Amino acid sequence: MIGSGYVGLVSSACFADVGNDVLCYDVDARKIAILERGEVPIHEPGLPELIARNRAAGRLQFTTDAAAAVAHGAVQFIAVGTPADEDGSADLKHVVAAARTIGRHMPESRLVVDKSTVPVGTADAVRHAIADELATRGAVIPFTVVSNPEFLKEGAAIDDFTRPDRVVIGSDDAEATRTMRMLYAPFQRNHERLIVMDVRSAELTKYAANAMLATRISFMNEIANLAERLGADIEQVRRGIGSDPRIGFHFLYPGLGYGGSCFPKDVKAIIRTAANVGVDLDVLAAVERVNEAQKRVLVEKIVRRFGADLSGRRFAVWGLAFKPNTDDMREAPSRVLISELLRRGAAVAVYDPAAMTEAQRVFGREPNLIYAASPLAAADGADALAIVTEWKEFRSPDFETLRARLKQPVIFDGRNLYEPADIRRLGFEHYPIGRQGADA
Ligand SMILES: NC(=O)c1ccc[n+]([C@@H]2O[C@H](COP(=O)([O-])OP(=O)(O)OC[C@H]3O[C@@H](n4cnc5c(N)ncnc54)[C@H](O)[C@@H]3O)[C@@H](O)[C@H]2O)c1
C-alpha cells in the first residue's frame, strides 16, 4: 500500500484482517514511526484495534523503504493524496511519484491499482511513468494498471470498506479483474457488489459521486437560506421532500457548507477537467459558489447580532473537525469562522472531542485563541456559543449549566442541533440555519 493516510491505512488494515499480508509504505517517516510505535496518526473509530490485531498477527507492517514495499506485494495500491493544484486541477505529483517508485523497484510483474481519486486519464499517466522507469533500468517486465476508486467515509471508514455498497473496478484486463474480484470477495459474501467498467468511466464515477453529494448539500443550503427569509422551516421542508423515494433522506441536511479532504478539491477538479476539454460545468460552478458563501453564514449572523467590531467579545466554538468522528480539519467551515472572529478582534475558545491536536497544528499559538479542555470550559464567560460540528456529545448538554456558564445565553446553531421552540423555552437566544430563530 503506497500512502498510509486515511484511505491507505483503512484499506490496509481491512485487507489484512481477512488474511492478506500487507506492507504499508509512506514517504512521511514521522507517520511510519508513529505506526511502528503502535499508535495511529489519525482519528478513525475502530482503526487502532484493527491495526493492533493485524500487527500482532504479523499480517500488517509499516515501512519507509520503497524497494521493500514494491518487492512485497504482487498488488500495489496507490493511495497517496491528490490535493488541488493552484488552478483547481488535481495535483498528480504524488501519484506519479508513487508510479515511478513502482517502476524503479519492481522485481517482477505487478498489478498496479489507482485507489487515489484521480482525473480521467490518470491510469495512462501512471502507465507511462512506470514504463519510463522500466526503460531507464533497461528492464522488460509486464504490468497492468487498473482503477479502483475508494468510496469510504471518514468516521465510518471501516464499516464502509468491509460492507461496501459497491466496489468500482476500472479494468480492461481479464486477469487483473479476476485478481480484484478475489481481493474484494471476503467483503461481499452475501452478494457481489463489484461493478466492472472501463478505466475512464471508473475514474469519472468517483468525481460524479462526490459532485452529486456536494450538489445536494449546496442545494439544501440555498433552500434553507430562502426558508429563513420566507418564514418557513427547512426541517419541515426536508421531511417533506425526503419522503419522496426519488429524493430520499440522505444528505439533505443544511448547515455550514461542505468541507473535508474530498468534496472541495473533487468539485474543483472535475470543473477543471471539463474546462480542459472545453466543457463548462455550470451546475457545479454554482455548487462551489454557494458553498463558499455558506461557510460564512454564521459569521454574518454573529455580525448582525454583535456588530462588525468584535473586540472585547468572547465566543465559544463547539466542533472543529469538518464532520463528526474524525479529526480532519481540511477545508473545515470552523477554519473560516474562527479566522474571521479573530480578525474582528474577538477571543475564541474552541473545543472538539478529536481535533484539538490538529487545531493546534492548523492555528498554532494565537493570543486570542483558547484551546479548551471541555465544552463547558469553552463556554465559560462567552458572549455566545457557535456550534460548527454535530458531534453526538453536543446534542443534549446540561442546558442549565451551559446557560449559567455563558455570559449571554446566545447560541448560533450551525448544525440545527436544537429545536428552536425548546431551546427558546430554556432561555436561550437561538440562531439556527433555515429555521425561525431569534433573528426571524
Ligand atoms: N479521506 C477520505 O475520506 C477519502 C475517501 C475516498 C477517497 N479519497 C482519496 O484517496 C486519496 C488519499 O486520501 P487520504 O485522505 O488518505 O490522504 P492523506 O493525505 O491522509 O494520505 C496520503 C498519504 O500519502 C503519502 N504519500 C504522498 N506521496 C507519497 C509517495 N510518493 N509515496 C508514498 N507515500 C506518499 C502521504 O505522506 C500521506 O501519508 C486522495 O486521492 C483522496 O481524494 C479519500
Describe this structure in words.
The protein has 18 helices and 13 strands. With about 450 residues, it is an alpha/beta fold. It has helices at about 5-15, 30-35, 45-55, 65-70, 95-105, 120-135, 155-160, 175-185, 200-230, 235-240, 265-275, 280-295, 295-305, 335-345, 355-365, 375-380, 400-405, 420-425; strands at about 20-25, 60-65, 75-80, 110-115, 145, 165-170, 195, 315-320, 345-350, 370, 385, 410-415, 430. The strands form four sheets. A six-stranded parallel β-sheet has the order 10-9-8-11-12-13. A three-stranded parallel β-sheet has the order 3-4-5. The protein has a two-stranded parallel sheet with strand order 1-2. β8 (about 315-320), α14 (about 335-345) and β9 (about 345-350) form a beta-alpha-beta unit. Nicotinamide-adenine-dinucleotide binds near residues 2, 4, 26, 94 and 116. The site of nicotinamide-adenine-dinucleotide has 27 residues, from α1 and α5.
